[in-house]
Design a protein that fits this description.
With 385 residues, the chain is α+β, with helices and mostly antiparallel strands. It folds into 3 domains: 108 residues, Butyryl-Coa Dehydrogenase, subunit A, domain 1 (Orthogonal Bundle), CATH 1.10.540; 111 residues, Butyryl-CoA Dehydrogenase, subunit A, domain 2, CATH 2.40.110; 145 residues, Butyryl-CoA Dehydrogenase, subunit A, domain 3 (Up-down Bundle). Helices cover 49% and strands 15% of the residues. The protein contains 12 helices and 10 strands. Strands 1-4-5-8 form a 4-stranded mixed sheet, covered by helices on one side. Strand 2 and strand 3 form a beta hairpin. Helix 5 packs antiparallel against helix 8. The radius of gyration is 21 Å and the shape is globular. The two termini are 31 Å apart. Bound molecules: flavin-adenine dinucleotide (FAD). Flavin-adenine dinucleotide binds next to strand 1, strand 3 and helix 12.
Length: 385
């Protein structure tokens, strides 16, 4: 795979770099300390229409592919945002599902998704349905004009700020041999009557609220069913692969940010009369991370290229998500060690990345499930999930 960057790529990457430069690491530290949504960043990012990179131009999107989403994500993450890009990724990926499978009324929302006025989250997970996504218990019962949703979703992001959620609910029982049958996807307005939240207190991603969402007799009009009834899984399966590839890019970017911080520090910090970057105990782990991140990046670009060509990419998506997460985690850990005790301080920014990058081991797919996919679909071993 050899990706040649055209002029339009260069222009996009320049836009992303300029955006990053105007929001340095101190901005992000402030946002995390205040535990608030990065409004200013979101507003500038939205002006570039980055919430709609992969959405059609007829909806105001940039009309580009996953390759471009991945390039921009990596550049922004490495430029200082780290894992601060949840909303950008969720608008792009939820938007893609709505664009492909939504009704006219649902698609009418897309221009506002692209402009960042609407924020769409993904509410699939439940307490008893994480890795085992088909175990969803939330039900949707058909009425005259629409559906009534009842149940509880877990790990719902941007609670209190998201305007809509893609919610997966059970409309009928699975059929023999097809556990994915009977699930339906709904686009739910977060202001609908019957929705309530309980905030979850978490380790990192302090800029993002995460909650448990109760749906108590929530009415959703028929026009907000996304895809076919009982076949909601088909509507998201493509976007799930795109999501994993995009998160691999996020991992590579966050890893590179940590590596850059460490290299910069290693050149400046003097111990025993010389800069620590001259010691091989400091150099080699950083050089190893450089190599690991490069390899993960090539795998990620490869997966994105295949995705854009319409070639099956679920193994590729899991491979790059797995490897990029491992590479990013090691880069952040090594960066912490390079900074010594200073790495533990908030002022030096790496501890924030350390807390955030750990999430990638569990989401959007756990490392174990990513390997289980690769084992089954890539190696032909028995299915274990
Ligand atoms: C901050 C945050 C944000 C999130 N955002 C979203 C979101 O936007 N939308 C959403 O729907 N969900 C979201 N999630 C949920 C996330 O996708 C799940 O946490 C993840 O899928 C794992 O589910 P679980 O926590 O229930 O773990 P479990 O499924 O209970 O798994 C527990 C452990 O067992 C392992 N395991 C399970 N089955 C197997 C197997 N067959 N083989 C090997 N190992 C196995 C898992 O890998 C894991 O290590 C988020 C989670 C967090 C923490």
């Amino acid at each position: 795979m050899h990706l040649i960057l055209g002029e339009h790529h260069k222009k996009l990457l320049e836009d992303a770099s300029r955006l990053s430069e105007s929001f340095g690491l101190e901005y992000w530290r402030g946002v995390y300390d205040a535990r608030r949504f990065p409004e200013e960043y979101w507003s500038k990012l939205s002006a570039l229409r980055f919430p709609g990179i992969i959405l059609d131009s007829r909806y105001g999107g940039l009309g580009l592919g996953l390759v471009e989403l991945v390039l921009i994500t990596e550049r922004l993450a490495a430029g200082g945002a780290g894992l601060g890009l949840y909303a950008m990724l969720s608008n792009n990926l939820a938007g893609l599902v709505i664009q492909q499978y939504g009704s006219e009324s649902a698609r009418a929302l897309l221009p506002r998704v692209v402009r960042g006025e609407l924020l769409i989250g993904l509410a699939f997970t439940e307490e008893e349905a994480g890795s085992d996504a088909f175990a969803i218990k939330t039900t949707a019962t058909k009425g005259d004009e629409g559906y009534v949703l009842q149940g509880e979703k877990m790990f719902v992001n941007n609670v209190g700020r998201a305007t809509h959620y893609l919610v997966m609910a059970r409309t009928s029982q699975p059929t023999e041999g097809r556990r994915s049958h009977g699930l339906t996807l709904f686009l739910v307005d977060s202001n609908s009557s019957g929705i309530s939240y309980a905030y979850l207190s978490k380790m990192g991603l302090d800029y993002l609220t995460t909650g448990r969402m109760t749906l108590d007799n929530v009415y959703v009009g028929r026009e907000m069913v996304v895809g076919n009834v009982d076949e909601g899984w088909k509507a998201i399966v493509n976007a799930l692969n795109a999501d994993r590839i995009a998160y691999a890019a996020l991992a590579v970017g966050a890893g590179r940010l940590a590596l850059n911080i460490a290299v910069d520090y290693a050149k400046r910090r003097r111990v025993f009369g010389r800069e620590i970057g001259g010691y091989q105990a400091i150099q080699f782990p950083l050089a190893a991370s450089y190599a690991e991140l490069e390899a993960a990046w090539l795998l990620t670009l490869n997966a994105a290229v295949k995705f854009d060509k319409g070639e099956s990419s679920d193994v590729d998506a899991c491979l790059c998500k797995y490897l990029a997460t491992e590479a990013a985690f090691r880069a952040v850990e090594r960066s912490m060690q390079t900074l010594g005790g200073h790495g533990y301080l908030r002022d030096y920014h790496v501890e924030r990345l350390f807390r955030d990058v750990l999430l990638l081991k569990s989401g959007p797919i756990t490392q174990e499930l990513a390997l289980a996919y690769v084992a089954q679909r890539g190696l032909g071993l028995p299915r274990s999930f």
